[in-house]
Amino acid sequence: MSKLLRSPSILAMAVFLPLLVLAFFSWQGTRAQVRAAWTSARDELKRSSAQATEKFAERLESALMPARIFPDPPKPGMASKADEVLDGKDIVALRQLRDDVNAGLSPAGLPRRVIAGLRVMEFGGDGNDAAQLVSLALAEDASILSHLVVEKYAGDEMKKWWQQEELARQAFDEHPDVGEAGKWGLTPQIVWLRVDESVLRFLSKEAFEEECERQRGLLPPWAGVRVVADGQVFGDERGEVIATLPLAFGRDARVEFSVIHPEMIDADARRQGRWALLLLGAAVIVCAVALAMMHSAIRRERHLSEMKSQFVASVSHELRAPVASIRLMAEGLEAGKVESAMVREFHRLIARESARLSTLVTNVLDHSRLEQGIKEWQMRECDLREMIEESILVMEPIAREKGVSILVALDPVRATVDKAAMQQVMVNLLDNAIKFSPRRTQVKVELRMSHGEVEIAVSDEGPGVAKQERELIFERFYRSGNELRRETQGTGIGLSLVKSIVEKHGGSVAVSSRAEGVGSVFLVKIPCIS
Q: Which partner for 507 in 158, 402, 511, 526 could form a disulfide, CB atoms 3.0-4.6 Å apart?
């Protein structure tokens, strides 16, 4: 397992290979669902096609419209006194003739009642006369006279019906052999026509399409219906044919049920497949991000482990040196082997090494408390100038020994801080500045207010900090470049501790340097809360 975690390629393969297998089986499952949906759709349509065909034939039969056949040319009638009434202007007599069912035909072969109705309208007939005239024309005549009456006096619906009858009669004139069995596709407007005892029974294109639409209402929403007869196709011409049955309507006709909306059959299966692939894609992205984070975390942990090892070595060295010095000087004092002139110097050295050891242990302990989140903060208002001066007093002996002078420019500032923690910040910053300062140089400490914030600046004349290391030096256990690491003491947690304490106060710390070898300025900013 540890080997798996150490190898990013093996880890990626272990994560993504099952996802690829799952994607393959998901794709296969979607295909199987699509095939099953199509099989189910075909079976469903085949089961319902017989009953649907029977109902379709019944509906087509009920949708037939009649159209009478009239003799052409008209048969002439016998002359009578009624013809004199037709030539006169007596509207009453004309109405009586119009209403006479025995009026008969004129010598020209035209119904006298229709002619009388036209004369009534000519001499001031009303709406009732017009309606009666239309009824007479449609009932007794199919000549140019009827056409004239319908066009002049009939309403839109009646005109439409008459036009369809005329189309049926024209189709019959062109195809007089339709017979009683009927015939399909005579004209673009007349889908089917037959002769039944001098009456034409016809099916218009509009009526046929309406019946097809009703038939689709009995079928699944993806299905269509069409009729194939006399080498022609009527209805839905597109789509795969699922079922074919003979149609008991007309001669040699069959009805075919087809798929006109194939996307509706497998829509659910494909939608599930898309969702599955979408979820797998999301899983791949999440896993990729997780692997990248794990890889980064593993690299970081490795780096941290190396830095901890270096930290342990550094701490061991830093602890060993002052302890050894204190032990040797204490043994010398105890044995009385130290000249009286050197006793005072030994005591000073023991105090210095003790302070150095105390600072080191305090840093390590505080760093541990901060990492574990158990450090207790004592936020109180205090005089920051006084706090900084106390910190400088602690570090002055080390600065004198190094030959470094400390300059101050402190404004009177009060703020609410953890005084002990801020003293630790100042001690670490001063220790860092003194450590990297050459002999006979200066370390400057400044305290001021700027834009509502407290600013503490510690500058030195040391080698400066390279631009690429200005963020790294505040990380745990980090120590600047190999050359400095060999020449200077330290454990790599001082500046990390500074950053943690300052951020707990709601502030920030940054380092600036004009260029490497010119010097460094560490600037601490904290909110002024008093």
A: 526
Using omega within 30 degrees of 0 as the cis cutoff, is the peptide bond preceding 262 cis?
Answer: no
- Within 8 A by CB and 6+ apart from 325, the residues are 349, 350, 353
Tokens 């080698």 belong to which residue?
A: 463
3-state secondary structure of 51: helix
205-214 pLDDT, tens digit per residue, is 889 888 888 8
Distance CA 407, CA 457 (A): 12
E strand or H helix at 331? helix 267-335
**H/E stretch holding 382:** strand 379-383
- What is the per-residue DSSP string for 471-508? TGGGSTT----HHHHHHS---S-HHHHHHHHHHHTT-E
Q: What radius of gyration do the chain's Cα atoms show?
A: 55
Query: How open is the CA angle 193-194-197, to the nearest 5 degrees?
Result: 145
Pairing status of strand 253-259 against strand 223-229: antiparallel
Q: Tell me, what's the pLDDT at 383?
A: 92
- Domain ranges, ordered by start, for the chain: 2-62+219-265, 82-174, 378-527
CATH topology of domain 378-527: Heat Shock Protein 90 (3.30.565)
- Looking at residue 459, what is its pLDDT? 93
Whole-angstrom distance, CA of residue 474 vs CA of residue 481:
14
